[in-house]
């Protein structure tokens, strides 16, 4: 099955929620004529990844976080998803009673919220966030998919867990490292777990495939990229005589 993935490649402003909301809506309008099946923004797009500001504490992050249940920003992006019949993976900071989470909100083709993913692997400034505690896989009309955020990809267990749960594609909103080391890492993550990964950064759209190949690598000024991927390629590789997932030896692995 083929799906068309749109990756929004726009740099947000730190702490400027209104301006960033206008940016994402403009970008969504640009990708709409391409009729994408899935649209992915970068990590914490709405707040501009303001967590790196040293003056901010875990408590003050809540000034930039949204409650998805009553946010007009969230209402607008969900309405866009419904109007255009596309899945949307939207990066923002989510407010909760215990603190702020680095979150990807997930909307289906009807614009309905079908879940969220909270970043699980936190280091340095990200320690101001509350950590996520699950690696869910989401059902869709094109099959199960996973979501991870930025540094989550550094741990091979993240991708492997999502792949073992059935994900054939993983959407990866990010804001951090995105050059040569990242390229090698993403190709390896896709190869070792036989999965497509759509790495979405303000400066780079990267899609890697289940053979470790580069499907898209776009750092142009266009503001977005459109990539078609054939998820049946994952099925072929995983069912082949030689398959990393099929030939695992979990009886030997230390947890």
What CATH architecture label applies? 4-Layer Sandwich
Question: Nearest-angstrom radius of gyration?
Answer: 17 Å
Shape: globular
Instruction: Determine the fraction of residues in helical runs and give it as a percent range.
Output: 10-25%
Oligomer: single chain
The ordered H/E elements are EHEHEEEEEHEHEEEEH
The main β sheet shows up as:
6 strands, mixed
Level-1 CATH class name: Alpha Beta
Low-confidence stretches: none
The number of strands is 12
Q: Could you name the CATH topology? A: Nitrilase/N-carbamoyl-D-aminoacid amidohydrolase
| Content of β-strand | 25-35%
Which secondary-structure class do the elements indicate?
Answer: alpha/beta
Question: Which strands sit side by side, in order, in the main sheet?
Answer: 5-4-3-2-1-12
State the separation between the terminal residues, measured CA to CA. Answer: 35 Å
The CATH superfamily is identified as Carbon-nitrogen hydrolase
Structural domains: how many: 1
Please give a structural write-up.
The protein is an alpha/beta fold. It has a single domain, classed as 4-Layer Sandwich (Nitrilase/N-carbamoyl-D-aminoacid amidohydrolase), CATH 3.60.110.10. 23% of the residues lie in helices and 27% in strands. It contains 5 helices and 12 strands. The protein has helices at 17-31, 72-84, 156-164, 180-193, 232-238; strands at 2-8, 38-40, 87-96, 99-107, 113-118, 137-138, 145-147, 169-173, 196-201, 204-208, 214-218, 224-230. Helix 1 runs parallel beside helix 2 (72-84).
């Amino acid at each position: 099955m083929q799906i068309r993935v749109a990756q929004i490649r726009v740099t947000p402003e730190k702490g400027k929620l209104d301006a960033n909301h206008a940016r994402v809506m403009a970008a969504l309008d640009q990708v709409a004529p391409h009729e994408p099946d899935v649209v992915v923004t970068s990590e914490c797009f709405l707040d501009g990844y303001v967590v790196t500001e040293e003056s901010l504490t875990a408590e003050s992050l809540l000034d930039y976080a949204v409650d998805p249940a009553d946010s007009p920003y969230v209402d607008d992006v969900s309405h866009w998803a419904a109007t255009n019949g596309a899945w949307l993976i939207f990066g923002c900071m989510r407010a909760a009673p215990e603190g702020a989470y680095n979150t990807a909100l997930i909307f289906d083709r009807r614009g309905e919220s079908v879940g969220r993913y909270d970043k699980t692997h936190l280091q340095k400034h990200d320690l101001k966030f509350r950590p996520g505690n699950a690696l869910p896989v989401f059902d869709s009309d094109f099959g199960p998919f996973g979501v991870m955020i930025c540094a989550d990809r550094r741990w091979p267990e993240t991708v492997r867990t999502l792949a073992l749960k059935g994900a054939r594609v993983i959407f990866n909103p990010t804001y951090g490292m995105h050059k040569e080391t990242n390229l090698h890492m993403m190709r390896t993550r896709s190869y070792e777990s036989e999965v497509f990964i759509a790495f979405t950064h303000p400066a780079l759209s990267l899609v890697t495939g289940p053979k470790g190949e580069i499907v898209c690598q776009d750092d142009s000024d266009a503001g977005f990229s459109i990539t078609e991927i054939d998820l049946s390629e994952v099925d072929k590789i995983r069912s082949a005589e030689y398959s990393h997932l099929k030939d695992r030896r979990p009886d030997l692995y230390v947890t």
